[in-house]
Amino acid sequence: MTRTRRDIIPFLFLIIPLIIYIVWVIAPMIYTFYLSLTNWNGLTTPEFIGFKNYQKLFNDKVFYISLKNNFKWLGAFITVPVILGLGLAMILNGTIPGEKLYKMTFYLPMVLAMVVSGLIWGWLYHPKGGLINTVIVATGLVEKGPGWLSNRDIVLWSIIIVAIWRQVGYVMVLYLAGLKSINPHLIEAATVDGASGWQTFWRIILPLLTPVTIIVLVISVIDSLRAFDLVSVMTRGGPANASSVLANFMYIESFNNYKMGYGAAIAVILFIISLGFIIIYLWRVMKDELEY
Amino acid sequence: MNRKIFLITIGLLISLAMILGGCTPETVTIVETVEVEKLVEVEKEVQVHVEKSVLIYNSMHGDPEPRAADEEIVKNFMEANPDIEVIHSIVAHEDFKTAIRAYLTASTPPDVLTWFAGNRARFFIDNDQIMDISDVWESEGWNDSYPKGFQALSTVDGKQYFLPTSWYWWAVYYRVSIFDELGLEVPETWDEFLAVNETLKDNGYIPIAIGTKYRWTAAAWFDYLNMRINGPEFHINLMLGTESYDDPRVAKVFEYWRVLLDNGYFLEDAAAYAWAEALEPLIAGEAAMYLMGDFIRDSVPDEIEADLDFFRFPIIDSSILIGEDAPTDGYFLAANAPNPEAAKQFLAYLGSVEVQTYNAEQLGRLPTNSGVDRTLFNESQQKGMELIDGADFVAQFYDRDTTPEMADEGMNAFMAFWDDPDSIDELLVELEAVRQEIFVEE
Questions:
Q1: CB < 8 Å from A in window 115-134 of B
Q2: Which residues of chain A neighbour B97 with C-beta distances below 8 Å?
Q3: pLDDT score at B14
Q4: Chain A CB contacts of B215 below 8 Å
Q5: Same structural domain for residues B68 and B114?
Q6: Quick one: B191 and B299 in the same domain?
Q7: Are A18 and B129 within 8 A, CB to CB?
Q8: Is the pLDDT of residue B3 over 70?
Q9: Over residues B96-114, mean pLDDT
């Protein structure tokens, strides 16, 4: 009797958050799956059309542009900010004068809302009066700076740079916390054994940072898949879809073109891609837990 | 044992989720009602004793000046009709467009809404979301006091559904001082227009300012070139989906457009600017012309406004009818409006000479009711009205005349063409595929 009660009690406590979670997260998710099989336009009653939306999606050029852009974003995101963030963390972990100020400066971009970052960078990228092009032209090397947000070949990278600028400080903070948790005796021992700085880093510090690295990578992957704000503010996916990402594509189709069913199908694809990464992550974490 | 209970709980919760999932569209309604109730409560404190019928009015007049005027109109209406309580919510333009379908499908939709005449209204009429207001038109005598063109714009199958209240014209705006300095005449034909561009460019000016970040500024060029080259009838049929995009006549539009692009007459890096950002070179006196709606005046400093004039988009083929873009805004009642009587009363007020005169005075809006005293308007407004009077056909605008998704694809194609004019044949084939999908499926 007492045993059963003890078993039930945790679930009783969980019931309210579970209900909230189900109503606001799980149910809309299931409903989105259903909508993706309909031709709902936001006005009429949804009509079941099978997998037509998906069929259309897989023949949609913009879908592939967006998908490719998401993967470019992902590729950039799991390399550049991670390396820069780790580098900064290593530098600032030591005792250098004014380290707090540096840490704060690097973390500051993260504090700004995405939309604000997007707007500010939009001004920096301004083709004529923007800081970047003004500086480039002032060097006298070129007559005219590039159209950062109007050239289809570079627009995506212009936006990714902003995202990276924002992310570096965040990654740095995560690594700083990780570095603090490393037992200094291990590093001392390595030094006593005659290991060089590089050897210590590669053989001791980096392996000990693995849990942090996994978290950083997962955050980077998720952030790059849900990239939306910067694109929406800076270019709205333009010019001619050159900087479109899946989330933005989904938004335009659903709320600009009112193709809710089609938008839902894009959302489902995005969900499946994210799920893939999450499963890989969980699988890794569980495996590690079993080892210890 | 504990596993079993866990599974049962989860099972129950999932089935609950399924049930709730079926109700998701209603969540929109819930949010809506809560908001409304809150507002009512606030108002109640002030006037407890009067039994009032409640009228919900959602508008998209989010900019400061129109907002103030809109609020004033509601205030005046409530003073004149103490038995009606208007709950007025103002939402920014773009957000309003996003939310309108949720408003209309809510279990208690707003009674009165602002909207665009033309295809955008037609879609809701065809889906039975807009109330037939023929009786208001009849009782207010609008069938006599509104010009034929606006009547036609509001009528489907002999019934009126829409109340057009204000409109503006499109034209090529230019800096008078630059034209004077170079001794340029206002161009009337295409050749003259090209010559003006060339002279401007030779003298170091940017001939045409344009910011295409949000794409619709480019759509204006398509509208005008198509109407000037192929005539307004072909244009509107293309918008309605009965002509095809791979028609050689459409390709011709891009040949003309291309001349301007190849010669570098447009502002460089146009895609980096929103329409108002591209005003900077015009204001700074670096750029000379801008194809734009009359709201351009609201966004330039007074001293520049004095130096700004406009001319009719040049005629390319004098043998065809003249079409102009003159987007019209107005109001409609939701088909399921909870309080249709008060709504019709309010609508009658909005369409009255009194309110239209007020709007004309406050905002410089052009009225639709011919009862409004025309001497109220300044010289340029008179000129704008003449411009439209002289047109054989009045279109709304690319993204108002065709469906939202066709407009979206079309404007993307314009941007791709802008970036790479050689790709136009390919783009038109794609657009045609989109058109068939959209219009043939429907």
A1: 124, 127, 129
A2: 256
A3: 57
A4: 238
A5: yes
A6: yes
A7: no
A8: no
A9: 90
* Residue B195 sits in the same domain as residue B321: yes
Contact B5 A252 (CB under 8 A): no
> Does residue B281 lie within any of the structural domains?
yes
Identify all chain A residues contacting B129, using CB atoms and an 8 Å cutoff. 43
Q: Are residues B162 and B292 in the same domain?
A: no
Specify the pLDDT at position B26.
37
Q: Could you give the residue ranges of the DSSP H alpha helices within B1-118?
A: 2-21, 24-46, 64-80, 93-105
Please tell me whether the peptide bond between B187 and the residue prior to it is cis, using omega within 30 degrees of 0.
no
Residue contacts between A and B (CB atoms, under 8 Å): 112
**Total number of domains in chain B:** 2
Q: Is residue B67 included in any domain, yes or no?
A: yes
B93 and B206 within one domain: no
Give domain A36-291's CATH superfamily: MetI-like (1.10.3720.10)
Integer angstrom CA distances of residue A130 from A137, A138, A152, A162, B299: 11, 12, 19, 15, 21
Looking at the complex, report in whole angstroms how far the Cα of residue B27 sits from the nearest Cα belonging to chain A: 10
pLDDT > 70? residue A120: yes
Residue with tokens 């009709």: B81
Residue A257, SS3? Answer: coil
Least confident range from A148-162, A244-258, B12-26: namely B12-26
Q: Do A240 and B412 touch (CB under 8 A)?
A: yes
Is B103 found in the same domain as B54?
A: yes
Check: complex ipTM more than 0.90: no
Percent over 90 (pLDDT), chain B = 59
Q: Are residues B421 and B287 in the same domain?
A: yes
Residues 61-80 of B with CB under 8 A from A: none
Give residue-wise pLDDT tens across range A241-269: 899 999 999 999 998 888 899 999 999 99
Phi, psi of B40 (to 5 degrees): -60, -45
Position A110, amino acid: M
Instruction: Give the domain range for residue B95.
Output: 46-168+328-380
B395 inside domain: no
Measured CA distances, B189 to A174, B281, B311 (Å): 65, 25, 11
